[in-house]
Structures are given as C-alpha cells and as structure tokens.
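Would you kindly consider the sequence and fold I have copied below?
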Amino acid sequence: MREIDAQRITDEVKRLCMEANYDIPEEVLELLREVKEKEESPAGKEVIRQIIENDQIARKERVPICQDTGFAVFFIELGQDVHIAGGYLEDAINEGVRQGYQEGYLRKSIDGDPVLHRVNTGDNTPAVIHLRIVPGESLKITFAPKGGGSENMSTVKMMKPADGIEGIKDFVVNWVRNAGGNPCPPSVVGVGIGGTFEKCALLAKQAAILPVGYKNPDPEYARVEEELLERINRTGIGPMGLGGRVTALAVHIKTHPCHIASLPLAINIQCHAARHKEVVI
C-alpha cells in the first residue's frame, strides 16, 4: 500500500489550475498555426493570428488565456493500492483549487446555488470531480477548466436506435451549426455515444479534452470523426463565428455499450484553447 500525502495533492492541483489557464497545449498551438495557413477568409485568418498572439502573451506573462477561467473539472484515476494520508481526497482537491485561483489571479465563477441564491462562492469551489478506481499505486489528476460559453453549447439527446450513425452525424453537425460563434471556435467537439443519460454526457466531456491529434482506435469511428470535422468546417461559421473554413480543430468520439432500446448521444464543446493539464503522482 502506497501513501500519498493530501498536501501534495493540494500543491499539484494548485499548480495545474494556474498552468492550465496560462499555457495552451502545445499540440493545439501547433494546429492553430497550421490551420491559419489554410483559412481562406481574411477575417478568419486574422482571428486565428490574434488567438495565437494572445496565447503567447499569456504563456510569457503568466496571465490567463481567457477572462473566463472556468469551472474546475477533474478526472481522477486513483490506484486501488493508494492510501491518501493526512486528509480527504476531495478536500485536498478543493483546497488546491481555492489556492490556485486565488494566487493565480484567476476569476472565480461559481455560484453556490444554481437558481434561488446565485451568490459567488468566492474561491471557485466546489470542483466537479469524476473518480475512477484503477489498478496500481499511482494517482492521475487531469484538470480541465471549463468555460461557461462552451459549456452552455452542450446537449444530451436520447436518439432512437433506428436513427443510426447517419442520424447521429446529422444531429452533431446541426448542433454545432446552431451554436455558431458562442463556444469561441475553432473548437474541439467532444461526442459521447451510448451508455445511459449521464454516461454519454461524461463520455462527451472526456472526448472534448483528448489531445487534438487523437484518433479513435476503431477505424470506423475514426472515419466518422474525420467526416464530422469536414462537414462542420463546411458550415462557414469560421473562427469566432466571423466566417471561414476553420470552425473546429478536431472532433473526438467516445462510446460505451447501451441498452437495446436506447441510443444516448451527448455533445460537449471546448473553445479554441482546449485547456487541460494532467499529472501522475
């Protein structure tokens, strides 16, 4: 049995909160440079140039990429042979968020009550924590600050099995088209298929934070990802909704077995920054 001190978790979470909001993933920055050369719209090309410049300034000056520093969303893989010493895992994560958002000068965006008493909690807690128990004696923490603009463009649709893959593709393309510039494109589109109502939503969020170079291991789903990306980029929405050929940087699909009478579908969109960081302890 391996022990991991709760204070170390807090320290790592604090660091992830700041770095994810300061540093765009390198593979995203490289892809932005690539698509800038392919963008035919002058307005779209200029938007991508400004996005790249903004990201470089944020990295150099250690300031947030965007004023919306997001809901603190965590995916935790906890080895079954790990014991958290000196505190509770959830408390350690929330303390790291509290410290990271305070010391990193990151905007606090969380209301304690969603409807009746919308009062800011003042420290961006509580975090949303998704926990999996896995083999081994390590702890993997993946942090994704999820901005409100892109999160608001999410959906779950209980499709009919008869809708099939063509129905899914049409729904995804139409949803992204209707979202327009709201999720701050060029975006990463996460698609979850299967499971249950809540499982497909989780799959979509996990898909949205995959590296932009990810290809589905199933060749058939990989082809669907490629087709969806091509169709979405033909919508003409373009960077920041100002028109052009680059509406999405990537489309990622994750699937799960589902009930014979169901075909759950979820879409979760990431803005152009595709912010996420991870650490293994």
In short: The CA atoms of residues 35 and 246 lie 7 Å apart. Residues 149-274 form one domain. DSSP finds eight helices and ten strands in the chain. The chain has a mean pLDDT of 96.
